[in-house]
Amino acid sequence: MNWIEKELEFLADASLERSLRTSSPVSEAPGYTVREERRLFNLSSNDYLGLSGHPAIIEAMREKLLTEGAGSGASRLVTGNRPPYHRLEEELAYWQNYEAALVFANGYMANSGVIAALVGRGDVVFSDQWNHASIVDGISLSRAEHARYRHKDMPHLRALLHKYRDKRRKLIVTDAVFSMDGDQAPLRELVALKREYGAMLMVDEAHSGGIYGKHGEGLCHELAIQNDVDIHMGTFSKSFGVYGAYICGSRTLIRWLVNKARPLIYSTALPPAVVAGVSEALVVVQGEHWRREKLFALSMLFRSLLGASGFTIGEGDSPIVPLIIGDNDMALRFSGALEDEGIAAAAIRPPTVPDGTARIRFSLSAAHTEKELRDAAARIRNIGLGLGMVKP
Ligand code: PMP
């Protein structure tokens, strides 16, 4: 086993070693986290709508915990398919305007399981080069050909669709909002290409669900293209503030997945209390519009403050705001300086992002206030000045 230590040293030397640190929530201040007894302004969570501490969601979970117990005890196909699942799946399908929905334990399992259930040897998956790792792993598991197209490059995708036009099944898959850059996929163009080449289209709304769309349905609804999306995937771990994921599609698709999606078949069902909490979160996501409005206003403010300071930040309007640094070590130093200044924001390095694009990934929440973000932006500017990244 000596090789592991050598490999770890190699990672550490390249400023690429990762380690686990404990972060605790602050119940009276949802926009903060506590690390090593220090309270930090949390700019590194995916709790975009600030729902993880929502009293109605917590109460729904507590109630179900008392009646249904702690765990589900088995996979959904055995005896783990407790009553809260049925209600949630009906509500999800109605919300998304699809025939049916299927809940998975998490987004990683949904993506990897669904892709491997839909394609196999002799098939091809066209996937944006910056799609989430769970999509990439699903393609590897499926044994289908992986046709990776350059980020959002539609002429490149078209050339690949042409090259692989004789493959048996074709699946185009994309994140709706990319997790590390916060930019949007060209969904309308993807729909046109899917039609032209007779491919299936799968969209991962992990970072857009709850945020875009009149009732938080996601970007596909906002752009009114959801009827052309064959497989709609979303998560409950981000905007919903809870845990889990779902797929919406036709009844036939869902029937197929119940029979073929291995993470659903061979893994224990979510605890019933989690499923009940998600149902309550769905009510909040649809009803509390002010959270979306506030989030967009905060995002525009924060983006304009960082841009005005001279930082290179990602495009778009999403609450994911990457501050591009480039060098791994510099990104770590920046993140350390942020922590010294009372801000939690992770340095994201390769292989999560491409080489030479290490960054700080800021993510905003409706739990934040304008004043907190203005203060944070001023501190971030000072760090940039100190590290020589921006000019006075
Ligand atoms: N898809 C995307 C785009 C993601 O960012 C993530 C999580 N970071 C996932 C899927 C996986 O979801 P989960 O955390 O529920 O496993």
UniProtKB/TrEMBL annotation:
<dbReference type="GO" id="GO:0008710">
    <property type="term" value="F:8-amino-7-oxononanoate synthase activity"/>
</dbReference>
<feature type="domain" description="Aminotransferase class I/classII large">
    <location>
        <begin position="40"/>
        <end position="380"/>
    </location>
</feature>
<dbReference type="InterPro" id="IPR015421">
    <property type="entry name" value="PyrdxlP-dep_Trfase_major"/>
</dbReference>
<keyword id="KW-0093">Biotin biosynthesis</keyword>
<comment type="pathway">
    <text>Cofactor biosynthesis; biotin biosynthesis.</text>
</comment>
<dbReference type="InterPro" id="IPR050087">
    <property type="entry name" value="AON_synthase_class-II"/>
</dbReference>
<keyword id="KW-0663">Pyridoxal phosphate</keyword>
<dbReference type="Pfam" id="PF00155">
    <property type="entry name" value="Aminotran_1_2"/>
</dbReference>
<dbReference type="InterPro" id="IPR004723">
    <property type="entry name" value="AONS_Archaea/Proteobacteria"/>
</dbReference>
<dbReference type="InterPro" id="IPR004839">
    <property type="entry name" value="Aminotransferase_I/II_large"/>
</dbReference>
<keyword id="KW-0808">Transferase</keyword>
<comment type="function">
    <text>Catalyzes the decarboxylative condensation of pimeloyl-[acyl-carrier protein] and L-alanine to produce 8-amino-7-oxononanoate (AON), [acyl-carrier protein], and carbon dioxide.</text>
</comment>
<dbReference type="InterPro" id="IPR015424">
    <property type="entry name" value="PyrdxlP-dep_Trfase"/>
</dbReference>
<keyword id="KW-0012">Acyltransferase</keyword>
<comment type="subunit">
    <text>Homodimer.</text>
</comment>
<dbReference type="InterPro" id="IPR015422">
    <property type="entry name" value="PyrdxlP-dep_Trfase_small"/>
</dbReference>
<protein>
    <recommendedName>
        <fullName>8-amino-7-ketopelargonate synthase</fullName>
        <ecNumber>2.3.1.47</ecNumber>
    </recommendedName>
</protein>
<comment type="similarity">
    <text>Belongs to the class-II pyridoxal-phosphate-dependent aminotransferase family. BioF subfamily.</text>
</comment>
<dbReference type="InterPro" id="IPR001917">
    <property type="entry name" value="Aminotrans_II_pyridoxalP_BS"/>
</dbReference>
